[in-house]
């Protein structure tokens, strides 16, 4: 049974990565969904039950049916409180939706922005209608219809448009310690950028200002929160994490130093060499040459 579960999870992840989309009933695939790479996929969840959702610096406790929108660039966690929990989930990559050229407006919607509200209370009539859309997506992903991807994208956008008509849930509580939550969110965002898997997908957030903008807060507030909770500056934490990744890329990949520099967000290789030498006392080439 355990072997079967491992195989099922492996197949789930391979299929999701290959196709960029997956829809399923929660009670059927709940174990597999815990292991997908959340940093790569948007998520829309229609669930009935009692749960507590931590999203950025807010916590939402909900009972009944809700529609939840998860952005891969915003940390969140989900606590299931009730013993029974049913519904549907769809996961989709940025690339999957980009093919319809709607991804930019999607990320600016009130559901996927960090300053927005990702949770909507759903009535019974709305639940029945949305159930139908999720069921249609599940059916289409198994079909041989040539244009099923475009049809699925249309279903996703229909769900979003239906959600835009509804009133967002504002029933949330702030963390007991707002600064601790902000620092935690920052650290998770920082870690989510790594590892860098290809030179063509470079580091996107490199400064404290980048993270503050992503979190929709003032950079001074971010810096104070991180310093108070961790004892280190935001810039120091970012710098040290980039340095750790630089060493890993130099030691464990065959990318040339220019590719490593580019992947880490340095416009010029000279900037990367100076950065590395200032922090380590040696240059990237020495680390690369010492690789066994």
UniProtKB/TrEMBL annotation:
Record SUPFAM superfamilies: Homeodomain-like
Protein name as annotated: Helix-turn-helix domain-containing protein
Domain HTH araC/xylS-type as annotated: residue spans: 184-290
Stored InterPro entries: Homeodomain-like_sf, HTH_AraC
The entry's keywords: DNA-binding, Transcription, Transcription regulation
Transmembrane segments: none
Pfam families in UniProt: HTH_18 (PF12833)
SMART domains attached to this UniProt entry: HTH_ARAC
């Amino acid at each position: 049974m355990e072997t079967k579960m491992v195989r099922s999870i492996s197949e789930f992840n391979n299929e999701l990565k290959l196709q960029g989309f997956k829809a399923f009933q929660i009670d059927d695939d709940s174990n597999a969904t815990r292991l997908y790479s959340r940093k790569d996929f948007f998520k829309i969840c229609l669930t009935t039950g009692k749960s507590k959702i931590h999203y950025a610096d807010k916590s939402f406790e909900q009972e009944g049916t809700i529609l939840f929108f998860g952005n891969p660039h915003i940390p969140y966690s989900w606590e299931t409180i009730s013993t029974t929990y049913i519904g549907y989930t769809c996961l989709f990559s940025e690339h999957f939706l980009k093919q319809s050229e709607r991804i930019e407006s999607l990320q600016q919607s009130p559901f996927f922005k960090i300053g927005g509200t990702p949770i909507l209370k759903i009535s019974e009539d709305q639940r029945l209608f949305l159930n139908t859309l999720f069921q249609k997506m599940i059916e289409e992903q198994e079909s041989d219809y040539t244009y099923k991807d475009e049809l699925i994208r249309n279903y996703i956008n229909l769900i979003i448009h239906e959600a835009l008509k509804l009133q967002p849930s504002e029933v949330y509580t702030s963390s007991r310690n707002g600064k601790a939550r902000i620092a935690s969110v920052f650290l998770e965002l920082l870690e989510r950028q790594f590892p860098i898997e290809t030179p063509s997908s470079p580091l996107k957030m490199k400064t404290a200002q980048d993270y503050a903008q992503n979190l929709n807060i003032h950079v001074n507030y971010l810096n104070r929160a991180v310093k108070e909770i961790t004892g280190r500056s935001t810039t120091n934490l970012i710098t040290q994490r980039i340095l750790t990744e630089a060493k890993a890329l130099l030691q464990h990949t065959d990318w040339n130093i220019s590719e490593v520099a580019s992947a880490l967000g340095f416009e010029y290789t000279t900037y990367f060499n100076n950065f590395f030498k200032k922090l380590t006392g040696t240059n990237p080439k020495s680390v690369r040459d010492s690789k066994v």
